[in-house]
Write a structure and sequence with these properties.
The chain is mainly beta. It contains 1 helix and 10 strands.
Length: 160
């Protein structure tokens, strides 16, 4: 039996998958090529059962998923880091910008999965959220804000 999304163009399948991933919320999931959902888990590994993670972006081939997860296991969470899922195994924290509070989210992924974008904090003020790009070889790069701005986020990236 064919998966219901298999008749849609690849962009529509990805959009539908991202919508489902975003709704998954506390049980972050990915959709395998077989049409089966794969639980990705959470960054928190303690005994508290309040998982709190969210997948927010996926690469074209599904080889990379990006999102954010709670590190403290509290219901509602208060300490979040951005993560990536490399297509198998567990999600991997990519962290947050250095020097600030720990509150980051990965929101978009390039088509090949090599670049992740989102937001983080490079100081101790929540109101000064900064957009970033991240690669495995270069780590975080703060993208800056518009002139005079204190708040920004990168929500998407082109496929190339």
């Amino acid at each position: 039996m064919k998966h219901p999304l298999s008749n849609l163009p690849s962009r529509a399948r990805r959009a539908a998958l991202i919508a489902v991933l975003g709704l998954a919320g506390s049980a972050t999931l990915a959709l395998a090529q077989t049409g089966q959902f794969i639980p990705l888990g959470d960054l928190f590994t303690g005994t508290n059962a309040n998982f709190n993670s969210s997948a927010n972006g996926i690469a074209i081939g599904g080889n990379t998923v990006a999102g954010s997860g709670s590190l403290d296991g509290l219901s509602g969470g208060s300490v979040f880091e951005a993560f990536r899922w490399p297509g198998s195994g567990s999600i991997i924290s990519i962290g947050d910008l250095s020097g600030g509070i720990t509150n980051a989210a990965a929101l978009g992924v390039s088509g090949d999965g090599s670049i992740i974008v989102g937001y983080g904090h490079d100081n101790l003020t929540v109101a000064q959220q900064k957009p970033f790009s991240w690669t495995s070889g270069g780590g975080f790069v703060t993208l800056g804000t518009l002139s005079g701005g204190l708040f920004g986020t990168a929500q998407g990236i082109s496929s190339n």
